[in-house]
Records
---
Amino acid sequence: MYDIEPRVNGHTERASVPAGMTLLEFLRDRLALTGSKEGCGIGECGACTVLLDGKPVTACLVLAVEADGLDVRTIEGEATDGQLSALQQSFVDAGAVQCGFCTPGMIMSARGLLLRNPHPSDEEIVEAIAGNLCRCTGYEAILRAIRAAAQQEVEPLPGEPDTKTARLLRSDQSTGGRP
Amino acid sequence: MTRELTYVGKSVPRDDAADKVTGAARYTHDLSLPGMLHAALVTSPHAAARIARIDASDAARLPGVRAVLTGADVDVRLGLYMQDKRILAHDVVRYQGEPVVAVAADTLDIAREACRRIHVEYEPRPAVLDPREAMKTAAALVHPDLGSYSHMEGVFFPTSRTNIAHHQKIRKGDVDAAFASAEVILKAGFDNPPVQHVPMETHASIAQALPGGRAEIWTSSQSPYTVRHLMSIAFGLPHNAVRVHVPYVGGGFGGKAGLNLEPLVYVLSKAAGGRPVRFVATREEEFNTLPSRQGLYSTIEIGTTRAGTIVALKATYVWDAGAYADYGVNVGRAAAYSGAGPYAIPNCWIDSFVVYTNKVYGTAYRGFGHLEVLWGVERAMDQMARKLGLDPAEFRRRNLLKPGDMTITGETFTAGHGEPSACLDAVAGAIDWGTPSPPPVEPTKRRGKGIAMLHKAPAMPTSTACSAIIKLDEDGAADILVSGVDYGQGTYTVLRQIAAEELRLPIQAVHINSDCDTAFTPYDWQTVASRFAYMGGHAVLRAAGDCLGQIRAVAAQVFGVATDKIVCENASAYPAGEPERAIPYRDLALGYTYPNGNAIGGPVIGHGRFIAHDLTHLDPDTGQGRPAQFWTYGAHGVEIEVDTETGEIEILRIATAIDAGKVLNAGLARGQVIGGVVQGIGSALWEGFRFDRSGHLLNPSFVDYKIPTAKDLPREMTPILLENPQPDGPYGARGIAEHPMISVPSAIGNALFDALGIEFASLPLSPESVVTRLAERGAEP
Ligand code: FES
Ligand code: FES
């Protein structure tokens, strides 16, 4: 057993953990921070992404002992005083959430990006979440959400139905794809 | 409905999003109960083998192990349509990855260690891998006892002493005569590999066997009531002795329909003295052990006149069901009655065979067989058009269903079905069909365009039912109770919109709890087939109407007017023309109290129900009948660029038109279209199981089984939603959730031919296959 003292979402946690315990297990099973998800357990899906000293890591591949003395930020630390961050709010507003299982990891990857690069290009946004798998959304709304958060403003959802020309509704004239 | 709509049709954001962006949303993966044990599995390393001996004595002695079960301990066969599967393999294993022994222990580590100490001796047998071979009479039988299995009678027709779990026939007109007189005939073969759903939350279930023969289950499922029903049948429990909770679900796509891990954790809990037992599939188990989408081999023959009118279509579909076909039989049925595409076909003959093999078993997957059959049909339509010298869009336009035409099961197509040709025109316009792509900058690249049609109806029993309860709260707000599951589609938001619209409440005042619980939320068959917004929508409409009736009755008494003179508006009720006298719902929700203390009415609780209507079983010999509550039609148009050196295909733009009847929530509908299209791109370009010669799955991980990432998005995606109302749909709506995925591979395959002049018959259109085919062509003289 190893004694560790990571700072998790601003609180110092003291714990004794086995050598093989992953940071993800520590967060979920010991601290009951179940917002970080396990989608594969072997570093291939990004659902477990958290920030370690500000940098996104896949917590299933990091040992709990490696977090000793470091700053860990999880999805539970993203909102302040019950107020969603601009990033969270733009995920809601852009329709970037479906089943939501990938969402915490997506948001943490995006947070890591915005911390190191507050004005990312579209390519940099794609790159930042390229390791986060989402099976539901097709990513387009997620990219839009991160872009909007970076600009601190939220684009209105395209596709308000035009009730006058009832038959043919093109909900997006322009690009709905990759930037 | 003359009133301007306040909520229906608007992009109301989903209200569970706040839970999901904060990590507060609790999925089955996240649940933990006091005293809970953890389960692990020993699975078969062989695709086909006899189990000679199981020695679990070492494992049972390991401290912390609470239960060890083998197939001999749990002799129950399960299934919704076809009871062909046991909880644990007994005597024989039928696919690599099949559960053989299950262990429950204090920790997952102990459970896994116990599994390592279990010794199973197998006598491997030759695996049955190709369903076309497996259909032959001489083939080894995957289920020698098939003839004795119970199944849904009159709907499914297993052939005993064969590997054929179901044979669906469609017979319309005189196909032989039509082909004899056809002026142009095309015959082509196509195939699709089995694929995985890949929900980001793998399958997970917790069960507790409670005293008095009761069971409580928490599960990542699309089907709370079907789980309850099948558990009750399997274990001889009264329905109300089984309680099923479904918390947030991290994606399903069909893979979490029906019964999955629930019986396994239940029998473990029973064996462990009633402690709750949890099993969460690893990603590798999700690939190896849990169900997939069936593979398919198609042969399609089309006959036309010289002018390009289809006179006959004949198709044989051979489904690679894998080891169990409980759900596969219904895929084979539904895809057959859709198996000629959305065309007017006077003479049609389809045989759809669902065939057992020694592979991981199939189940429902978004599109329910339609992506697979339309991969063939829509590629064949393009080939036929070229044979006729017609533009592929024009050839389709001539043959698409129009009002008055008859479908291949004998249903008359009407304007209320939607407008397939308008979908085609919309996508053709969006990708500038008819104008060749500008040449790519790099000389090694080629560009091409393709189009494809799609259609699908819900595949469900003829008596599928659904219900909803709405209760008003003390403050006049409303709670909707339903048992359909919103595992991401957004249906709960749509139901809230409908209730808010009907009850004249602000949308924020209408709530749906994200947890289904069969002890409290009312019956719904299961959340599949793109029918929840349609059926649940109706149930909520009626439940809201019931609430309004109760509100009006009390208000009428208070105001001393007839009930039909009461107007409900702005969360209040008043006599017509006298809005200043309005009583807010909060003063009516629990009953009305007069100033002197007398009270009338009582808590307002409305219920609404809906059952499929006018559907019939299909005639076993001809497939004629009415299988579909509604049809949804659509089309894709795509432009691609293919790199002739790497074989990689880039989607430059894709336009998707779906005739939704009525768009209930534009933002969510858009999300379904884009999410579905990208999932379809996965099926088109990369996804597919690969097996070795002995039936071992070679790619059970994200490294070897690629799904689309953010880097793989098309440069441009254009969702187009048409609104030709469904006469019996809520606000005119029909289901759209599965459809965007269907025919994406067909459109891309057609574009690939346009780009390279090479016919691709097999999915996926992977870089390797493109490069190989280019090299073959290069080698030709
Ligand atoms: S769970 Fe860590 S990357 Fe998938
Ligand atoms: S929202 Fe379901 S996996 Fe991303």
Note: Residues A 97-103, 134-137; B 200, 251, 488 surround FE2/S2 (inorganic) cluster (ligand 2) (CB under 6 Å).
---
Amino acid sequence: MVAARYQTAVTLYPYQKVADQAASTPARHPVVIIGGGPVGLALALDLGQRGTPALVLDDHEGPGLGSKAICFAKRTLDIATRLGAGAAMVEKGVVWSLGKVFHGDGKVFEFDLLPEDGHRNPAFINLQQPYFETFLFDAIRRAQAGGAPIEVRGGNRVTDVRPAEDQVGLTVDTPDGPYAVEADWVIACDGARSPTRDMLGLSFDGRVFEDSFLIADVKMQAPFPTERWFWFDPPFKGAGQSALLHKQPDDIWRIDFQLGWDIDREEELKPQRICARVDEMLSAQTGEVPEYALEWTSIYTFQCRRMQAFRHGRVLFAGDSAHQVSPFGARGANSGVQDAENLAWKLDLMCNGLAEDALLDTYAEEREYAADENILNSTRSTDFMTPKSEISQVFRNAVLELAARAPFARPLVNSGRLSVPCVYDGLTLFGEDHLDGPPATRPGTPAVDCKLGQTFLLERLHPGFTLLAIDADTPEQIEAGGLLARRLELSAQTNPLLAERYLGNAPSAVYLIRPDQHIVARWPTFDHEAVKRASHIAIGKAAPCP
Amino acid sequence: MPLTLHPNITDPDGFYQELLDAHEGKTKADSDALNARLILILANHIGDRAVLRDALEAAK
Ligand SMILES: Cc1cc2nc3c(=O)[nH]c(=O)nc-3n(C[C@H](O)[C@H](O)[C@H](O)COP(=O)(O)OP(=O)(O)OC[C@H]3O[C@@H](n4cnc5c(N)ncnc54)[C@H](O)[C@@H]3O)c2cc1C
């Protein structure tokens, strides 16, 4: 039996009996993914599209109901676009750019996140997490129809994980009773409470923020502006230390109240109490309370923590199971999807015998580094929003007061630093920078998008490695150390944006770019030996002796 | 330019008096707030992170 732990928003992968359940010896799978949240689904899709079989086991039959992630950042949308799910997300999502920051009664400042030119995707969208997961699953269905070896088994709960030298044994509970499978690799995408982590006896250390957040999703048809409103010390009665109002699709608004640690949860969740707060917030700018209805309310506490190591032999952790952040900056699902994309191509090479075991260590190296950066950012936001001492309160308020009258103080105001992809500066798999080029496209960065006629650069990159040649002569493809890089030939002569982003002052450039679109190395012209060297480095192999 | 810890203010007595005058008649809380604003304004004017770091160190 598999009892539901939460209500699902929609049924996507209903339980079905499969042959594995009747097998006399456990079936063997190359990759088993535990958990079909945003991270598990993205990973399965990426692997399947590369041709590596992926089996997802999830103990429910669809995404959970209720308020979770709403803010999805550009890098996530770029990844989703590569996976074939991005367009649906952007179409459904709310794109916003205007924001207001308040302190008590007064407005501190307004901002307009004017979009930068030449990107397919916006800086971010607001979209309810169940939609995000549904669009990923739709893409999985399309990929399956095209022959991609992906299987998602709902109602399948992993109850035991037994790592061995050459495989990992799993026990899976189902409505028809338990069965066993074996996997070459197990990826635990089973969320912040990760049963896999517990089964392996691994710890999850970090900092608990002593704070509770009341989250109310409110439906209203009123012509309310599509803006992000954030209050420090909101003037509404009992609204706590901060409050946030943000629009989602379907006329839903996300409202957050930071209530503090010592609260009576039951009392705070009473509808009339929530409505009193919401009334005051909604009327603060317009003077009247629009008609609205409460859709979903809950109280959360947050923590910042991560596992010490994301890789434990044949078991790897990705997403919330590996790291957890406070939600300011929307770094949870966004960073988890980046874990998935980082791991997918590496696992694919491993499963095809094209890389050595050490390549998977670099998954841990890169994503632990990214997790630290995300934890640092969300900890700083939390420290600004909830000053921990008298003097930090004094400085916080000084920043807010100054921000109202002096532009210099506005960048210091921190109500969350929105998720941006991590730059893997100086990590193992990155090579040389011999181009005197723009810093934004140096080795370690994710390739910056750029409009190319009717298409965009990111979607022109190859699924494998790309040798990007801008006004430079290179072979059509290059093979080194098991890695195959195919050329993408472009000219910046009539594309000043491409020149600005990839050439700087150089007349030409050659870039080696990974399957996850991160830049490995770059040169002013094609140098066969140098590219070969970088190709070895890029998949964690020793470079050949010159 | 590195942090200077040598005399750099013309009319030091005049500056010191203006600093105290700015705090004249304020409560402790208001004075603390004024100091915090002043530090932020000066820090922004300096801008250079290395100089700011040296200044923080020198003030300890
Ligand atoms: C209030 C709130 C607001 C948030 N806002 C944002 C935001 O704006 N942007 C953002 O990026 N992130 C946000 N987050 C974080 C985001 O929701 C998570 O980071 C994200 O859900 C993590 O995805 P995941 O796939 O790692 O794990 P989950 O989404 O937790 O999925 C784990 C899956 O594993 C399954 N599972 C668990 N145990 C087993 C088992 N034994 N066997 C089989 N399956 C199992 C679960 O049922 C579930 O389907 C927010 C979170 C909260 C709570």
Note: The first helix of chain A runs from residue 38 to 50.
